[in-house]
Amino acid sequence: HYFIQSNLSSPETMKEGADKETRSDNGFRNCSLKFWLAISAVVSGGAFQVGYSFTVVVLTMARVKAHFDTDDLYISAIISGNPIGGLIGALLGGYIADNVGRTRGLMFNSVPFILGSVLMATCQHPAMLLAGRIVVGFGVGVSSGLTNMFLAEIAPVAIRGFVGMLWGILLTVGSLLALLISSSQVMGSGELGWRLVFAFPVLPALYQTLILIFCPEPPPFLAVNKKDTEQAVNSLLHYRRRLVPEEVRDLEQEMDESPAVLSFMEILCTPRHRLALIIGIGLHSAQQLSAFSVVLSYTPSLFEQLNVSSKELTTFGTGLVNLGTAVIAAITTDRLGRRPLLLIGFLVTAGSHVSLAVAQSCASGEWGCQGEWNVQLAIASVFIFIIGFSASLGPIPMLIVNEITPPETRGRTNSICIGFNWSCGLIILFSYDSIFKEVGWYTFIIFGAMGLLWFVFALLLVPETRKKTVQEISQNIKSQTEQILPFVFFVKDSHSGH
Hints:
By secondary structure, the chain is an all-alpha fold. Helix content is 77%, strand content 0%. Helix 3 (72-100) runs antiparallel to helix 4 and helix 6 (126-154) packs across helix 21.
Protein backbone atom coordinates (compact mmCIF):
# COMPACT_ATOMS: atom_id res chain seq x y z
CA HIS A 1 0.00 0.00 0.00
CA TYR A 2 2.90 2.36 0.72
CA PHE A 3 4.28 1.65 -2.75
CA ILE A 4 0.95 2.59 -4.32
CA GLN A 5 0.65 5.81 -2.37
CA SER A 6 4.21 6.82 -3.19
CA ASN A 7 3.60 6.27 -6.89
CA LEU A 8 0.39 8.30 -6.80
CA SER A 9 2.10 11.21 -5.07
CA SER A 10 5.25 11.26 -7.19
CA PRO A 11 5.86 14.31 -9.43
CA GLU A 12 5.89 12.16 -12.55
CA THR A 13 2.42 10.78 -11.99
CA MET A 14 0.93 13.99 -10.59
CA LYS A 15 2.07 16.35 -13.33
CA GLU A 16 -1.54 16.68 -14.44
CA GLY A 17 -2.78 16.86 -10.87
CA ALA A 18 -4.69 20.04 -11.56
CA ASP A 19 -7.10 18.02 -13.64
CA LYS A 20 -9.79 15.99 -11.98
CA GLU A 21 -8.66 12.38 -12.26
CA THR A 22 -11.63 10.07 -12.32
CA ARG A 23 -12.37 6.78 -14.00
CA SER A 24 -14.03 8.61 -16.90
CA ASP A 25 -10.70 10.34 -17.62
CA ASN A 26 -9.01 6.98 -17.90
CA GLY A 27 -9.91 6.21 -21.50
CA PHE A 28 -8.20 6.44 -24.86
CA ARG A 29 -6.12 9.47 -23.94
CA ASN A 30 -4.53 7.80 -20.94
CA CYS A 31 -3.45 4.65 -22.78
CA SER A 32 0.25 4.61 -23.57
CA LEU A 33 1.86 3.72 -26.88
CA LYS A 34 3.05 0.49 -25.21
CA PHE A 35 -0.58 -0.32 -24.47
CA TRP A 36 -1.60 -0.05 -28.12
CA LEU A 37 1.45 -2.00 -29.30
CA ALA A 38 0.57 -4.80 -26.89
CA ILE A 39 -3.05 -4.75 -28.08
CA SER A 40 -1.98 -4.89 -31.73
CA ALA A 41 0.32 -7.81 -30.99
CA VAL A 42 -2.17 -10.01 -29.14
CA VAL A 43 -5.09 -9.45 -31.52
CA SER A 44 -2.81 -10.11 -34.50
CA GLY A 45 -1.32 -13.22 -32.92
CA GLY A 46 -4.68 -14.37 -31.51
CA ALA A 47 -7.93 -13.14 -33.06
CA PHE A 48 -6.45 -12.74 -36.54
CA GLN A 49 -5.10 -16.29 -36.42
CA VAL A 50 -8.48 -17.69 -35.37
CA GLY A 51 -10.32 -16.07 -38.28
CA TYR A 52 -7.59 -16.94 -40.76
CA SER A 53 -7.27 -20.58 -39.74
CA PHE A 54 -11.00 -21.25 -40.00
CA THR A 55 -11.52 -19.55 -43.34
CA VAL A 56 -8.34 -20.52 -45.18
CA VAL A 57 -9.76 -23.97 -46.00
CA VAL A 58 -12.89 -22.60 -47.71
CA LEU A 59 -11.21 -21.99 -51.08
CA THR A 60 -7.98 -24.02 -50.78
CA MET A 61 -9.26 -27.54 -50.14
CA ALA A 62 -10.30 -28.12 -53.76
CA ARG A 63 -6.71 -27.47 -54.89
CA VAL A 64 -5.27 -29.60 -52.07
CA LYS A 65 -7.63 -32.44 -52.99
CA ALA A 66 -6.57 -32.28 -56.63
CA HIS A 67 -2.86 -32.09 -55.77
CA PHE A 68 -2.84 -35.14 -53.47
CA ASP A 69 -5.65 -36.94 -55.32
CA THR A 70 -7.32 -37.72 -52.00
CA ASP A 71 -10.96 -38.41 -51.15
CA ASP A 72 -13.62 -36.26 -49.49
CA LEU A 73 -13.29 -38.12 -46.18
CA TYR A 74 -9.65 -37.08 -45.83
CA ILE A 75 -10.51 -33.49 -46.76
CA SER A 76 -13.24 -33.45 -44.10
CA ALA A 77 -10.72 -34.75 -41.56
CA ILE A 78 -8.28 -31.96 -42.49
CA ILE A 79 -10.99 -29.34 -42.05
CA SER A 80 -11.96 -30.88 -38.70
CA GLY A 81 -8.36 -30.87 -37.46
CA ASN A 82 -8.58 -27.22 -36.43
CA PRO A 83 -11.52 -27.53 -33.99
CA ILE A 84 -10.13 -30.81 -32.59
CA GLY A 85 -6.83 -29.09 -31.75
CA GLY A 86 -8.80 -26.07 -30.56
CA LEU A 87 -10.70 -28.12 -28.01
CA ILE A 88 -7.44 -29.48 -26.55
CA GLY A 89 -5.92 -26.00 -26.43
CA ALA A 90 -9.02 -24.52 -24.83
CA LEU A 91 -9.04 -27.10 -22.03
CA LEU A 92 -5.37 -26.40 -21.25
CA GLY A 93 -5.71 -22.64 -21.66
CA GLY A 94 -6.83 -22.02 -18.08
CA TYR A 95 -3.82 -23.84 -16.64
CA ILE A 96 -1.47 -21.91 -18.93
CA ALA A 97 -3.12 -18.59 -18.02
CA ASP A 98 -2.88 -19.13 -14.27
CA ASN A 99 0.54 -20.79 -14.09
CA VAL A 100 2.57 -19.50 -17.04
CA GLY A 101 0.84 -16.13 -17.24
CA ARG A 102 -1.22 -14.21 -19.77
CA THR A 103 1.66 -12.46 -21.52
CA ARG A 104 4.17 -15.30 -21.40
CA GLY A 105 1.49 -17.80 -22.30
CA LEU A 106 0.67 -15.83 -25.46
CA MET A 107 4.35 -15.62 -26.33
CA PHE A 108 4.82 -19.38 -26.05
CA ASN A 109 1.56 -19.91 -27.95
CA SER A 110 3.21 -18.50 -31.06
CA VAL A 111 5.09 -21.81 -31.32
CA PRO A 112 2.11 -23.96 -32.42
CA PHE A 113 1.13 -21.34 -35.00
CA ILE A 114 4.63 -21.33 -36.48
CA LEU A 115 5.11 -25.10 -36.28
CA GLY A 116 1.66 -25.92 -37.66
CA SER A 117 1.96 -23.43 -40.51
CA VAL A 118 5.35 -24.83 -41.53
CA LEU A 119 3.95 -28.37 -41.48
CA MET A 120 1.08 -27.40 -43.76
CA ALA A 121 3.18 -25.30 -46.12
CA THR A 122 5.78 -28.04 -46.61
CA CYS A 123 3.49 -31.09 -46.45
CA GLN A 124 4.31 -34.01 -48.72
CA HIS A 125 1.31 -36.08 -47.65
CA PRO A 126 -2.23 -35.17 -46.50
CA ALA A 127 -1.35 -36.57 -43.05
CA MET A 128 1.16 -33.73 -42.58
CA LEU A 129 -1.55 -31.24 -43.51
CA LEU A 130 -3.90 -32.82 -40.97
CA ALA A 131 -1.18 -32.70 -38.28
CA GLY A 132 -0.50 -29.05 -39.07
CA ARG A 133 -4.20 -28.19 -38.79
CA ILE A 134 -4.41 -29.86 -35.37
CA VAL A 135 -1.28 -28.05 -34.13
CA VAL A 136 -2.55 -24.68 -35.36
CA GLY A 137 -5.93 -25.52 -33.84
CA PHE A 138 -4.24 -26.03 -30.47
CA GLY A 139 -2.80 -22.51 -30.72
CA VAL A 140 -6.21 -21.17 -31.70
CA GLY A 141 -7.82 -22.81 -28.66
CA VAL A 142 -5.25 -21.41 -26.24
CA SER A 143 -5.37 -17.91 -27.73
CA SER A 144 -9.20 -17.86 -27.60
CA GLY A 145 -8.92 -17.66 -23.82
CA LEU A 146 -5.60 -15.94 -23.22
CA THR A 147 -6.05 -13.13 -25.73
CA ASN A 148 -9.41 -12.08 -24.32
CA MET A 149 -8.14 -12.31 -20.74
CA PHE A 150 -5.19 -10.10 -21.64
CA LEU A 151 -7.42 -7.53 -23.35
CA ALA A 152 -9.84 -7.36 -20.41
CA GLU A 153 -7.10 -7.07 -17.79
CA ILE A 154 -5.06 -4.26 -19.31
CA ALA A 155 -7.96 -2.16 -20.65
CA PRO A 156 -9.35 0.80 -18.66
CA VAL A 157 -12.96 0.30 -17.59
CA ALA A 158 -14.16 3.21 -19.77
CA ILE A 159 -13.02 1.55 -23.00
CA ARG A 160 -13.00 -2.11 -21.99
CA GLY A 161 -15.86 -2.87 -24.37
CA PHE A 162 -14.07 -1.34 -27.35
CA VAL A 163 -10.82 -3.11 -26.56
CA GLY A 164 -12.60 -6.43 -26.07
CA MET A 165 -14.48 -6.05 -29.36
CA LEU A 166 -11.17 -5.72 -31.20
CA TRP A 167 -11.14 -9.51 -30.97
CA GLY A 168 -14.11 -9.62 -33.34
CA ILE A 169 -12.61 -7.05 -35.71
CA LEU A 170 -9.26 -8.79 -36.12
CA LEU A 171 -10.93 -12.19 -36.35
CA THR A 172 -12.95 -10.81 -39.25
CA VAL A 173 -9.85 -9.26 -40.83
CA GLY A 174 -8.13 -12.64 -40.63
CA SER A 175 -11.11 -14.34 -42.21
CA LEU A 176 -11.36 -11.73 -44.94
CA LEU A 177 -7.66 -11.84 -45.75
CA ALA A 178 -7.79 -15.64 -45.93
CA LEU A 179 -10.60 -15.39 -48.48
CA LEU A 180 -8.72 -12.77 -50.46
CA ILE A 181 -5.30 -14.37 -50.76
CA SER A 182 -6.68 -17.90 -51.23
CA SER A 183 -8.91 -16.86 -54.14
CA SER A 184 -7.98 -18.07 -57.60
CA GLN A 185 -7.32 -14.50 -58.74
CA VAL A 186 -4.59 -14.03 -56.10
CA MET A 187 -3.37 -17.52 -55.32
CA GLY A 188 -3.65 -18.93 -58.82
CA SER A 189 -4.04 -22.62 -59.52
CA GLY A 190 -0.46 -23.76 -58.87
CA GLU A 191 0.98 -25.64 -55.92
CA LEU A 192 3.12 -22.74 -54.67
CA GLY A 193 0.04 -20.57 -54.14
CA TRP A 194 -1.77 -22.69 -51.59
CA ARG A 195 1.50 -23.52 -49.78
CA LEU A 196 2.22 -19.80 -49.29
CA VAL A 197 -1.32 -19.27 -48.05
CA PHE A 198 -0.77 -21.88 -45.33
CA ALA A 199 2.61 -20.36 -44.42
CA PHE A 200 1.29 -16.81 -43.92
CA PRO A 201 0.33 -17.15 -40.17
CA VAL A 202 4.02 -17.32 -39.30
CA LEU A 203 4.23 -13.53 -39.74
CA PRO A 204 1.64 -12.44 -37.11
CA ALA A 205 3.00 -15.09 -34.73
CA LEU A 206 6.50 -13.60 -34.96
CA TYR A 207 5.12 -10.07 -34.53
CA GLN A 208 3.25 -11.08 -31.36
CA THR A 209 6.37 -12.68 -29.89
CA LEU A 210 8.59 -9.68 -30.68
CA ILE A 211 6.25 -7.15 -29.03
CA LEU A 212 5.31 -9.22 -25.97
CA ILE A 213 8.95 -9.76 -25.02
CA PHE A 214 8.88 -6.18 -23.72
CA CYS A 215 5.41 -6.31 -22.09
CA PRO A 216 4.71 -7.18 -18.43
CA GLU A 217 1.88 -9.38 -17.23
CA PRO A 218 -1.47 -7.56 -16.74
CA PRO A 219 -1.86 -5.77 -13.37
CA PRO A 220 -4.71 -7.96 -12.02
CA PHE A 221 -2.72 -11.13 -12.74
CA LEU A 222 0.31 -9.79 -10.85
CA ALA A 223 -1.82 -8.49 -7.98
CA VAL A 224 -4.06 -11.53 -7.46
CA ASN A 225 -2.22 -14.53 -8.92
CA LYS A 226 1.32 -13.48 -7.96
CA LYS A 227 0.48 -11.26 -4.96
CA ASP A 228 3.13 -8.80 -6.14
CA THR A 229 1.95 -5.27 -5.39
CA GLU A 230 5.00 -3.48 -6.73
CA GLN A 231 5.02 -5.28 -10.07
CA ALA A 232 1.26 -4.80 -10.45
CA VAL A 233 1.58 -1.03 -10.19
CA ASN A 234 4.64 -1.01 -12.45
CA SER A 235 2.59 -2.92 -15.01
CA LEU A 236 -0.19 -0.34 -14.72
CA LEU A 237 2.39 2.41 -15.32
CA HIS A 238 3.60 0.53 -18.41
CA TYR A 239 0.14 0.53 -20.01
CA ARG A 240 -0.94 4.05 -18.94
CA ARG A 241 0.39 7.54 -19.53
CA ARG A 242 -0.28 8.30 -15.86
CA LEU A 243 -1.80 6.58 -12.85
CA VAL A 244 -5.43 7.36 -12.11
CA PRO A 245 -6.22 7.09 -8.37
CA GLU A 246 -9.55 5.33 -8.86
CA GLU A 247 -7.99 2.65 -11.04
CA VAL A 248 -5.20 2.08 -8.52
CA ARG A 249 -7.75 1.84 -5.70
CA ASP A 250 -9.71 -0.71 -7.71
CA LEU A 251 -6.52 -2.72 -8.12
CA GLU A 252 -5.78 -2.41 -4.41
CA GLN A 253 -9.29 -3.61 -3.59
CA GLU A 254 -8.80 -6.64 -5.82
CA MET A 255 -5.58 -7.48 -3.98
CA ASP A 256 -7.29 -7.16 -0.57
CA GLU A 257 -10.48 -9.08 -1.42
CA SER A 258 -9.31 -11.77 -3.82
CA PRO A 259 -8.24 -15.11 -2.35
CA ALA A 260 -5.74 -17.37 -4.02
CA VAL A 261 -6.63 -18.82 -7.43
CA LEU A 262 -9.65 -21.07 -6.95
CA SER A 263 -9.87 -24.69 -8.07
CA PHE A 264 -12.61 -26.03 -10.34
CA MET A 265 -14.47 -27.48 -7.34
CA GLU A 266 -14.25 -24.20 -5.42
CA ILE A 267 -15.72 -22.39 -8.42
CA LEU A 268 -18.57 -24.90 -8.66
CA CYS A 269 -19.26 -24.71 -4.91
CA THR A 270 -19.47 -20.92 -4.77
CA PRO A 271 -22.88 -19.63 -6.00
CA ARG A 272 -21.76 -16.38 -7.64
CA HIS A 273 -18.83 -18.06 -9.40
CA ARG A 274 -21.09 -20.91 -10.46
CA LEU A 275 -23.66 -18.49 -11.89
CA ALA A 276 -20.91 -16.67 -13.81
CA LEU A 277 -19.77 -20.06 -15.12
CA ILE A 278 -23.31 -20.98 -16.22
CA ILE A 279 -23.69 -17.65 -18.02
CA GLY A 280 -20.33 -18.13 -19.73
CA ILE A 281 -21.08 -21.71 -20.79
CA GLY A 282 -24.46 -20.64 -22.13
CA LEU A 283 -23.13 -17.75 -24.18
CA HIS A 284 -20.19 -19.72 -25.58
CA SER A 285 -22.48 -22.62 -26.49
CA ALA A 286 -24.96 -20.24 -28.09
CA GLN A 287 -22.20 -18.75 -30.22
CA GLN A 288 -21.43 -22.09 -31.89
CA LEU A 289 -24.99 -23.46 -31.91
CA SER A 290 -26.05 -20.40 -33.89
CA ALA A 291 -24.37 -22.33 -36.75
CA PHE A 292 -22.21 -19.45 -37.90
CA SER A 293 -19.54 -22.00 -38.78
CA VAL A 294 -22.04 -23.67 -41.12
CA VAL A 295 -22.86 -20.41 -42.85
CA LEU A 296 -19.16 -19.52 -43.17
CA SER A 297 -17.85 -22.94 -44.24
CA TYR A 298 -20.66 -23.72 -46.63
CA THR A 299 -21.17 -20.24 -48.09
CA PRO A 300 -19.56 -21.07 -51.49
CA SER A 301 -21.55 -24.29 -51.94
CA LEU A 302 -24.70 -22.61 -50.60
CA PHE A 303 -24.62 -19.90 -53.24
CA GLU A 304 -23.70 -22.46 -55.89
CA GLN A 305 -26.82 -24.46 -55.02
CA LEU A 306 -28.84 -21.27 -55.32
CA ASN A 307 -27.41 -20.60 -58.79
CA VAL A 308 -25.39 -17.53 -57.83
CA SER A 309 -22.79 -17.12 -60.59
CA SER A 310 -19.82 -15.59 -58.70
CA LYS A 311 -19.52 -17.51 -55.44
CA GLU A 312 -16.05 -16.17 -54.62
CA LEU A 313 -17.23 -12.57 -55.01
CA THR A 314 -20.32 -13.23 -52.90
CA THR A 315 -18.28 -14.93 -50.17
CA PHE A 316 -15.85 -12.01 -50.10
CA GLY A 317 -18.81 -9.65 -49.89
CA THR A 318 -20.05 -11.41 -46.76
CA GLY A 319 -16.61 -10.88 -45.25
CA LEU A 320 -16.76 -7.14 -45.91
CA VAL A 321 -20.20 -6.93 -44.30
CA ASN A 322 -18.83 -8.87 -41.34
CA LEU A 323 -15.91 -6.45 -40.94
CA GLY A 324 -18.02 -3.31 -41.22
CA THR A 325 -20.47 -4.57 -38.63
CA ALA A 326 -17.69 -5.57 -36.22
CA VAL A 327 -16.18 -2.07 -36.41
CA ILE A 328 -19.52 -0.37 -35.75
CA ALA A 329 -20.22 -2.72 -32.84
CA ALA A 330 -16.82 -1.99 -31.30
CA ILE A 331 -17.44 1.76 -31.47
CA THR A 332 -20.92 1.54 -29.93
CA THR A 333 -20.59 -1.19 -27.28
CA ASP A 334 -19.38 1.19 -24.54
CA ARG A 335 -22.33 3.45 -25.29
CA LEU A 336 -25.17 0.99 -25.91
CA GLY A 337 -24.01 -1.78 -23.60
CA ARG A 338 -23.32 -5.48 -24.10
CA ARG A 339 -26.74 -6.79 -23.09
CA PRO A 340 -28.87 -4.88 -25.67
CA LEU A 341 -26.50 -5.84 -28.50
CA LEU A 342 -26.59 -9.47 -27.40
CA LEU A 343 -30.39 -9.65 -27.18
CA ILE A 344 -30.87 -7.98 -30.56
CA GLY A 345 -28.26 -10.32 -32.05
CA PHE A 346 -30.17 -13.42 -30.90
CA LEU A 347 -33.38 -12.16 -32.51
CA VAL A 348 -31.69 -11.13 -35.76
CA THR A 349 -29.81 -14.41 -36.22
CA ALA A 350 -32.91 -16.48 -35.37
CA GLY A 351 -35.01 -14.57 -37.89
CA SER A 352 -32.30 -14.92 -40.54
CA HIS A 353 -32.22 -18.69 -40.08
CA VAL A 354 -35.96 -18.90 -40.67
CA SER A 355 -35.89 -16.70 -43.79
CA LEU A 356 -32.95 -18.70 -45.16
CA ALA A 357 -34.94 -21.91 -44.66
CA VAL A 358 -37.86 -20.38 -46.56
CA ALA A 359 -35.61 -19.29 -49.44
CA GLN A 360 -33.92 -22.67 -49.70
CA SER A 361 -37.16 -24.64 -49.50
CA CYS A 362 -38.66 -22.56 -52.30
CA ALA A 363 -35.51 -22.74 -54.42
CA SER A 364 -35.48 -26.54 -54.15
CA GLY A 365 -39.05 -26.73 -55.47
CA GLU A 366 -40.30 -28.31 -52.26
CA TRP A 367 -42.92 -25.64 -51.68
CA GLY A 368 -43.67 -24.90 -55.34
CA CYS A 369 -42.67 -21.25 -55.10
CA GLN A 370 -39.50 -21.01 -57.17
CA GLY A 371 -38.43 -17.64 -58.49
CA GLU A 372 -35.66 -15.09 -58.63
CA TRP A 373 -36.71 -13.80 -55.23
CA ASN A 374 -35.47 -17.08 -53.70
CA VAL A 375 -31.86 -16.19 -54.46
CA GLN A 376 -32.33 -12.60 -53.35
CA LEU A 377 -33.89 -13.66 -50.05
CA ALA A 378 -31.15 -16.25 -49.43
CA ILE A 379 -28.37 -13.72 -49.99
CA ALA A 380 -30.13 -11.11 -47.85
CA SER A 381 -30.63 -13.69 -45.09
CA VAL A 382 -26.94 -14.58 -45.04
CA PHE A 383 -25.91 -10.92 -44.95
CA ILE A 384 -28.39 -10.08 -42.18
CA PHE A 385 -27.30 -13.13 -40.20
CA ILE A 386 -23.65 -12.07 -40.44
CA ILE A 387 -24.55 -8.52 -39.33
CA GLY A 388 -26.42 -9.84 -36.30
CA PHE A 389 -23.69 -12.30 -35.41
CA SER A 390 -20.75 -9.94 -35.89
CA ALA A 391 -22.31 -7.28 -33.67
CA SER A 392 -23.21 -9.62 -30.84
CA LEU A 393 -22.74 -13.40 -30.71
CA GLY A 394 -19.29 -13.26 -32.27
CA PRO A 395 -17.32 -11.03 -29.86
CA ILE A 396 -19.59 -10.43 -26.86
CA PRO A 397 -19.40 -13.90 -25.19
CA MET A 398 -15.60 -13.59 -25.06
CA LEU A 399 -15.91 -10.08 -23.64
CA ILE A 400 -18.60 -10.74 -21.03
CA VAL A 401 -17.03 -13.87 -19.55
CA ASN A 402 -13.88 -11.92 -18.73
CA GLU A 403 -15.95 -9.10 -17.23
CA ILE A 404 -18.14 -11.22 -14.93
CA THR A 405 -15.27 -13.33 -13.57
CA PRO A 406 -12.69 -12.04 -11.04
CA PRO A 407 -8.98 -12.79 -11.58
CA GLU A 408 -8.93 -15.74 -9.18
CA THR A 409 -11.50 -17.67 -11.30
CA ARG A 410 -10.94 -16.14 -14.74
CA GLY A 411 -8.44 -18.64 -16.10
CA ARG A 412 -10.34 -21.81 -15.17
CA THR A 413 -13.76 -20.37 -16.02
CA ASN A 414 -12.49 -19.35 -19.45
CA SER A 415 -11.07 -22.81 -19.97
CA ILE A 416 -14.41 -24.49 -19.24
CA CYS A 417 -16.46 -22.01 -21.29
CA ILE A 418 -14.20 -22.14 -24.34
CA GLY A 419 -14.08 -25.93 -24.01
CA PHE A 420 -17.88 -25.92 -24.39
CA ASN A 421 -17.48 -23.49 -27.29
CA TRP A 422 -15.21 -25.84 -29.21
CA SER A 423 -17.28 -28.89 -28.27
CA CYS A 424 -20.43 -27.29 -29.64
CA GLY A 425 -18.50 -26.29 -32.74
CA LEU A 426 -17.53 -29.92 -33.29
CA ILE A 427 -21.14 -31.03 -32.74
CA ILE A 428 -22.34 -28.63 -35.44
CA LEU A 429 -19.51 -29.59 -37.78
CA PHE A 430 -20.13 -33.33 -37.54
CA SER A 431 -23.93 -33.31 -37.24
CA TYR A 432 -24.97 -30.72 -39.82
CA ASP A 433 -24.76 -33.02 -42.85
CA SER A 434 -26.67 -35.81 -41.11
CA ILE A 435 -29.40 -33.47 -39.89
CA PHE A 436 -29.64 -31.87 -43.32
CA LYS A 437 -30.11 -35.25 -45.01
CA GLU A 438 -32.99 -36.01 -42.66
CA VAL A 439 -34.92 -32.73 -42.56
CA GLY A 440 -33.46 -30.71 -45.45
CA TRP A 441 -33.74 -26.96 -45.29
CA TYR A 442 -35.80 -27.20 -42.10
CA THR A 443 -32.40 -27.56 -40.42
CA PHE A 444 -32.20 -23.79 -40.29
CA ILE A 445 -35.61 -23.54 -38.62
CA ILE A 446 -34.16 -25.70 -35.85
CA PHE A 447 -31.23 -23.28 -35.57
CA GLY A 448 -33.69 -20.39 -35.43
CA ALA A 449 -35.70 -22.01 -32.64
CA MET A 450 -32.52 -22.54 -30.62
CA GLY A 451 -31.70 -18.87 -31.12
CA LEU A 452 -35.00 -17.88 -29.49
CA LEU A 453 -34.25 -20.14 -26.52
CA TRP A 454 -30.85 -18.51 -26.09
CA PHE A 455 -32.57 -15.11 -26.25
CA VAL A 456 -34.67 -16.09 -23.21
CA PHE A 457 -31.54 -17.38 -21.44
CA ALA A 458 -29.72 -14.06 -21.97
CA LEU A 459 -32.79 -12.03 -21.03
CA LEU A 460 -33.06 -13.81 -17.68
CA LEU A 461 -29.42 -14.24 -16.66
CA VAL A 462 -26.93 -12.02 -18.50
CA PRO A 463 -26.13 -8.79 -16.60
CA GLU A 464 -25.05 -5.48 -18.07
CA THR A 465 -21.31 -4.90 -17.58
CA ARG A 466 -20.80 -1.60 -19.39
CA LYS A 467 -18.37 0.71 -17.55
CA LYS A 468 -18.54 -1.32 -14.33
CA THR A 469 -15.57 -2.44 -12.29
CA VAL A 470 -14.90 -6.07 -11.39
CA GLN A 471 -16.15 -5.33 -7.86
CA GLU A 472 -19.41 -3.78 -9.09
CA ILE A 473 -20.10 -6.63 -11.51
CA SER A 474 -19.28 -9.20 -8.84
CA GLN A 475 -21.75 -7.59 -6.46
CA ASN A 476 -24.43 -7.68 -9.18
CA ILE A 477 -23.75 -11.38 -9.78
CA LYS A 478 -23.91 -12.07 -6.03
CA SER A 479 -27.27 -10.26 -5.77
CA GLN A 480 -28.51 -12.21 -8.77
CA THR A 481 -27.72 -15.55 -7.12
CA GLU A 482 -29.95 -14.61 -4.20
CA GLN A 483 -32.90 -14.34 -6.60
CA ILE A 484 -32.30 -17.73 -8.25
CA LEU A 485 -34.31 -20.72 -7.03
CA PRO A 486 -32.61 -22.35 -3.98
CA PHE A 487 -32.35 -25.78 -5.60
CA VAL A 488 -30.07 -24.28 -8.25
CA PHE A 489 -27.71 -22.58 -5.79
CA PHE A 490 -27.99 -24.60 -2.62
CA VAL A 491 -24.33 -24.42 -1.51
CA LYS A 492 -23.47 -21.68 0.96
CA ASP A 493 -21.29 -18.91 -0.51
CA SER A 494 -18.26 -19.36 1.71
CA HIS A 495 -15.78 -17.10 -0.10
CA SER A 496 -15.71 -13.43 0.72
CA GLY A 497 -14.91 -10.67 -1.76
CA HIS A 498 -15.74 -11.65 -5.33
